[in-house]
Known about the structure:
This protein has eleven helices and eight strands. The chain is an alpha/beta fold and 287 residues long.
Amino acid sequence: xxxxxxxxxxxxxxxxxxxPPKKSNNIEELFETISALKEADPAFISVTYxxxxxxxxxxxxxxxxxxxxxxxxxxxxxxxxxxxxxNVSDILDSMKKSGIDNILALRGDIPKGMDREKAFLHFRHAxxxxxxxxxxxxxxxxxxxxxxxxPQSKTKKEDLDFLKLKQDKGAERFNTQLCFETDTxxxxxxxxxxxxxxxxxxxxxxxxxxxxxxxxxxxxxxxxIPSRLxxxxxxxxxxxxxxxxxxxxxxxxxxxxxxxxxxxGLHLYTMNKHSSSLEILRDxxxx
Length: 287
């Protein structure tokens, strides 16, 4: 089923992201999290994909169980890094057999130790992957969007052109990268609309729980830290409980403004925990 057909109408779509745990004995804890997240009636739950395909089988297993055991549509990540056409074809066949219809096509990050030239021998960009998925037929593709622009895009126009190209090549929904500045997100949505982006866009939201986690995510994504968020680091960076309290208030304020502006969807990065994501949704009236 196409995830865009699950929730129709003016109501903002809710979704979550989880990732395969590094330790196999933690996988049942992940499913306890998913069971708790079901309270929010999500349209879908995305499952990330290890760098270079290191957790491919876990991604398929988790996505399949999300659908069969919890009745929630999964969105399985698929990356270009280190992938050959035969390899990707096998992955897609495995997903199809497991009842996985929705794919998030990503270029992906190069893992440590992998040569850049070897990383993208067959698929250099997410658009190449989108072409291949469309040729396989029977899948619905989604892709990533970047409110602050992709780090490798030279200009905002170039970034929007690539976004439009993804849509033209079959992307039926976008999930955005992290962005902690709401004005930037709203400006991006206007720019995307003006660039003829017509598919739904779900806004990625990270519950702000501790300084180390946020700084790590910023270093990986290249997103900026607004002054209001920087003040939280200065005021409460040494107090974990206070930082979590004020960090969650920051996220709730951001979500409330996005809802006021009628965004298509909210996609919460759970870090495999449910309590903070559900707290945000309850306090803004979505649960």
